[in-house]
Please model this.
Amino acid sequence: IYRLNNLHKNEFNLKFVVIGDFGVGKTSIINRYVDGEFSQKYCITIGADFSLKTIEWDDDTRIFLQLWDIAGHEKFSSLTGVFYRHSVGAAIVFDLTRPETFNSVPQWLNDLRRKTQLPDGKNIPVVILANKGDMTVDTMPQEITDFCENNNILAWYITSAKSNIQIDEAMIRLIMESLNPI
Ligand code: GTP
Ligand code: MG
Model:
């Protein structure tokens, strides 16, 4: 019975990109979300990498989510457009313990917006992840909220790949927006 039902599921392929400066925790966030794992060791990403997560969204819907992990060192590289191609959502990550990585968020957003759009011509939905929330209480929330309001950002979250904070929530928000755009 279950097998038969599965045949009738609607299946969606969604591609999201995860961008932001080097060392902010993009790979860690993806590993946490996809495999439930975290490592203290910094293993630098070269170019780009991707992970696949299958999500049984509801009784009728299955999602094949591709998460593209773009190396922070690709900032200002002409390759990012290739990595972004066909993406329908993005997470821009910065590191709460290194405020300069928040200053790079506008550059990443600008690069993304210049090189992506949905098939209907609209901007792809974007969330901002203020990562390493387990390490600091100094969260500059008003600055981030203002930036989001002024730049058509869907939402922002204080996350931790280490402590598994708010990563599921952020991904669910992006998926919901991709399935049911407002
Ligand atoms: P690039 O691949 O160079 O672009 O970096 P990245 O953004 O993928 O960073 P990565 O996930 O490799 O994490 C860099 C370092 O930060 C690693 O040592 C991680 O263990 C650490 N880290 C990542 N997320 C967290 C977090 O939420 N909390 C803490 N305490 N450390 C974290
Ligand atoms: Mg990485």
User: Anything to note?
Assistant: The first strand starts at residue 10 and ends at 19. The mean pLDDT is 93.
